[in-house]
Amino acid sequence: MRLVLVGPPGAGKGTQAERMAERLDVPHISTGDLFRANLKQETELGLEAKRYMDAGNLVPDEVTVGMVRDRLGDADTEKGFILDGFPRTTAQADSLGGILKDKGLELDAVVQFEVDDEVVVQRLLGRGRSDDNEDTIRNRQQVYRDETAPLLQYYADRLVTVDAVGEVEEITERVFTALGKG
Ligand code: ADP
């Protein structure tokens, strides 16, 4: 399956993406993880991304889209993939559409993780990543509302919504049920 996960920061997309990837036997592609891996290796792309990530802003599309295009060129994505954190804007969604169209492919579904802002602030503050301080989190939530939430309309024809509050295992089951694979 080719899936995109959408949800506010702290909705648990990464956790669910790991579990879904294992069950579906497809790679989990997280743009946040790719940026953090680049940063750890001190690549030019990583250092460029850091400035934006630290402030909770989006990394520019020139950087992000190229990175995703490269990753989707890897052979392991031929059996499908779970995209986590990309696209995050309708412009990125257009780019993704173009990348897939060139391969004659389409997304099967877009899974929306629904969760309340206050629940996620508490979760994120507990996680302790360097970009998980309250100001950055609030900014990321604002960016989500302004830039990412329009994707829910964009993908209305393939949107599957899941209540993302509950136990990890329970939420995974909700996802597969919503995808008709329960
Ligand atoms: P979260 O969903 O908790 O905000 P992520 O690990 O998905 O965490 O992303 C962390 C940061 O990486 C974002 O705040 C942003 O700066 C950058 N980033 C991730 N994905 C994208 C993307 N698709 N476009 C632009 N920036 C991105």
From TrEMBL:
<feature type="binding site">
    <location>
        <begin position="57"/>
        <end position="59"/>
    </location>
    <ligand>
        <name>AMP</name>
    </ligand>
</feature>
<dbReference type="GO" id="GO:0004017">
    <property type="term" value="F:AMP kinase activity"/>
</dbReference>
<dbReference type="GO" id="GO:0005524">
    <property type="term" value="F:ATP binding"/>
</dbReference>
<comment type="function">
    <text>Catalyzes the reversible transfer of the terminal phosphate group between ATP and AMP. Plays an important role in cellular energy homeostasis and in adenine nucleotide metabolism.</text>
</comment>
<dbReference type="InterPro" id="IPR033690">
    <property type="entry name" value="Adenylat_kinase_CS"/>
</dbReference>
<keyword id="KW-0067">ATP-binding</keyword>
<feature type="region of interest" description="NMP">
    <location>
        <begin position="30"/>
        <end position="59"/>
    </location>
</feature>
<keyword id="KW-0808">Transferase</keyword>
<feature type="binding site">
    <location>
        <position position="36"/>
    </location>
    <ligand>
        <name>AMP</name>
    </ligand>
</feature>
<feature type="binding site">
    <location>
        <begin position="85"/>
        <end position="88"/>
    </location>
    <ligand>
        <name>AMP</name>
    </ligand>
</feature>
<dbReference type="GO" id="GO:0044209">
    <property type="term" value="P:AMP salvage"/>
</dbReference>
<feature type="binding site">
    <location>
        <position position="92"/>
    </location>
    <ligand>
        <name>AMP</name>
    </ligand>
</feature>
<dbReference type="InterPro" id="IPR000850">
    <property type="entry name" value="Adenylat/UMP-CMP_kin"/>
</dbReference>
<keyword id="KW-0963">Cytoplasm</keyword>
<dbReference type="InterPro" id="IPR027417">
    <property type="entry name" value="P-loop_NTPase"/>
</dbReference>
<comment type="pathway">
    <text>Purine metabolism; AMP biosynthesis via salvage pathway; AMP from ADP: step 1/1.</text>
</comment>
<feature type="binding site">
    <location>
        <position position="129"/>
    </location>
    <ligand>
        <name>AMP</name>
    </ligand>
</feature>
<dbReference type="GO" id="GO:0005737">
    <property type="term" value="C:cytoplasm"/>
</dbReference>
<keyword id="KW-0545">Nucleotide biosynthesis</keyword>
<feature type="binding site">
    <location>
        <position position="166"/>
    </location>
    <ligand>
        <name>ATP</name>
    </ligand>
</feature>
<feature type="binding site">
    <location>
        <position position="127"/>
    </location>
    <ligand>
        <name>ATP</name>
    </ligand>
</feature>
<keyword id="KW-0547">Nucleotide-binding</keyword>
<comment type="subunit">
    <text>Monomer.</text>
</comment>
<comment type="similarity">
    <text>Belongs to the adenylate kinase family.</text>
</comment>
<feature type="binding site">
    <location>
        <position position="31"/>
    </location>
    <ligand>
        <name>AMP</name>
    </ligand>
</feature>
<dbReference type="InterPro" id="IPR006259">
    <property type="entry name" value="Adenyl_kin_sub"/>
</dbReference>
<dbReference type="Pfam" id="PF00406">
    <property type="entry name" value="ADK"/>
</dbReference>
<feature type="binding site">
    <location>
        <position position="140"/>
    </location>
    <ligand>
        <name>AMP</name>
    </ligand>
</feature>
<keyword id="KW-0418">Kinase</keyword>
<protein>
    <recommendedName>
        <fullName>Adenylate kinase</fullName>
        <ecNumber>2.7.4.3</ecNumber>
    </recommendedName>
</protein>
<feature type="binding site">
    <location>
        <begin position="10"/>
        <end position="15"/>
    </location>
    <ligand>
        <name>ATP</name>
    </ligand>
</feature>
